[in-house]
Specification:
This protein is an alpha/beta fold and 458 residues long. Helix content is 35%, strand content 26%. The termini are far apart.
Length: 458
């Protein structure tokens, strides 16, 4: 047996042991079994505190109805929690996230350029849970067992009837030639990508507002990643900051794709007319290696030295899916193996995957996550009643800021359809606005306010 198989087997046995041990406090036993129970509890008490914590039930009220546990409190998870209660008020909904508060990545590029304050992006999970009548648990998910329907967290286990996985993404540094864990940690700490942890955004804002001049590298990853337009927008915001600060700086925008992937005409115009002295756009720049000590990025064609950088590597679905055996390991991004229309794990209609880790190639922007979560909430509510919800496409609405003072932005609105000939999803009913203006900038902030209000306050 291979070592990886042994590890999986050991973990599975451990989780099953946890499921059994976690039942100590909830099972009444016959008198003749009391001695055996006492012995088992004594042994459990000898375990380290962290293990005992894992094997006990998390502190939650008893479920009055079918319990739906949502793993991940991003745009998808927050929307899911609200709309599950709308479609079936009898559901007992628990939203889990390891962060104590929510800080939005959509609209964060405007914050980097000082167009909004941090309060605009920051919201309370507790407010959302209280407003929409569900529970929020601030803890870290360690794994789950689908056979016994338990989610294991650092606060204890939670039984579920349905589980929704919306755990987001992880960086895959190996796809840009950085394989050593120590180098990956250094790269993350010195040149964070700004799409996973809110601390990355704070570091990036400091970088942009204290940069002394020289060469600043940004990049666009290949594959699917959070918000297709976001890296191009970030390059514009960085250039706007440097221009406003009147420093001599050159932004090398290394695109690992053959061309600008969305809003091409609008971004090309911005790069040339607004930031011709600042942005050097280099398509087909597949990053193959990064020398952190020498501050050098290597591609298939050239090496580029830099003074500072924001490195946004290709991403992959959360490793929680891989650990649970529900990731499609044949895909580069290890996306979930799910039904493309119903979002449930193949062979398990009680576990659903939404947001960044789902299998469909739709945009991974915030509006898409919100739209599809509303639909999947209907799917789950219908399934609980023995019914089916009719498929409908998610909607993507995306604003991209290109200039500041005043904030100016362009936008796209689109739906999706399945092409039976190519057997792939494609854009449908697309409306593109590539002529940016201040009205678009204000609309982008109004859109964000409306989305926050939907998830948190009404």
């Amino acid at each position: 047996m291979a070592n990886s198989d042994k590890n999986k087997l050991s973990r599975r046995h451990f989780l099953k042991a946890g499921a059994a041990a976690g039942a100590f406090s909830g099972i009444s036993v016959p008198l003749q079994a009391a001695a055996a129970k006492d012995t088992a509890e004594d042994k459990a008490n000898e375990l380290p505190f962290a293990i005992r914590k894992l094997l006990n039930a998390a502190t939650l009220p008893k479920a009055d109805g079918a319990r739906v546990v949502i793993v991940g409190g991003g745009w998808s998870g927050l929307t899911m929690a609200k709309y599950l209660k709308i479609h079936n008020p009898a559901f007992d909904v628990v939203l889990i996230d390891k962060r104590p508060e929510f800080i939005s990545f959509p609209a964060s590029n405007s914050w980097l350029a000082n167009q909004v304050n941090l309060d605009f992006l920051t919201h309370s999970y507790i407010d959302a849970a209280r407003t929409h009548d569900y529970y929020f648990l601030n803890t870290t998910v360690l794994g789950f067992d689908r056979e016994v329907k338990k989610v294991f967290t650092s606060n204890g286990f939670i039984n579920y009837d349905y589980m929704v996985l919306a755990p987001g993404i992880e960086y895959d540094y190996s796809r840009i030639g950085v394989d050593d864990p120590a180098d990956q940690a250094r790269l993350y700490n010195n040149y964070p990508g700004g799409f996973v942890n809110s601390s990355e955004l704070i570091t990036i804002k400091r970088k942009l507002n204290t940069f002394k001049g020289g060469t600043f590298v940004l990049n666009v990853p290949n594959g699917e990643y959070r918000c297709t337009a976001a890296p191009y927008e970030r390059a514009c915001m960085a250039a706007a900051i440097f221009k406003q600060r009147r420093i001599k700086a050159k932004i090398l925008l290394l695109d690992m794709n053959a061309d600008i992937r969305i809003k091409k005409q609008g971004f090309e115009k911005a790069f040339s007319s607004l930031y011709g002295d600042y942005i050097s756009y280099l398509p087909s720049s597949e990053i193959s290696q990064i020398d952190i000590d020498e501050k050098t990025v290597s591609t298939d064609f050239d090496d580029y030295t830099f003074d500072d950088a924001i490195i946004y590597p290709p991403v992959r679905a959360s490793s929680l899916l891989e650990d649970a055996g529900i990731a499609n390991m044949k895909t580069a991004q290890k996306i979930a193996n799910t039904d493309p229309y119903k979002y449930h794990v193949i062979g398990d209609e009680y576990v659903y995957v939404t947001g960044d880790s789902r299998s469909q190639p739709f945009s991974k922007g915030g509006h898409t996550a919100n739209s599809e979560a509303q639909y999947v909430a209907e799917v789950i509510a219908a399934h609980a009643l023995g019914k089916e919800a009719r498929w409908r496409s998610p909607q993507t609405m995306c604003f991209s800021a290109v200039d500041i003072n005043p904030l100016q932005a362009m936008s796209i609105i689109t739906f999706y359809k399945f092409n039976k000939q190519s057997k792939e999803f494609e854009f449908d009913r697309t409306h593109m606005m590539e002529d940016w203006n201040s009205e678009g900038g204000q609309a982008s902030l109004a859109w964000a306010e409306g989305m926050y209000r939907d998830m948190f306050y009404r």
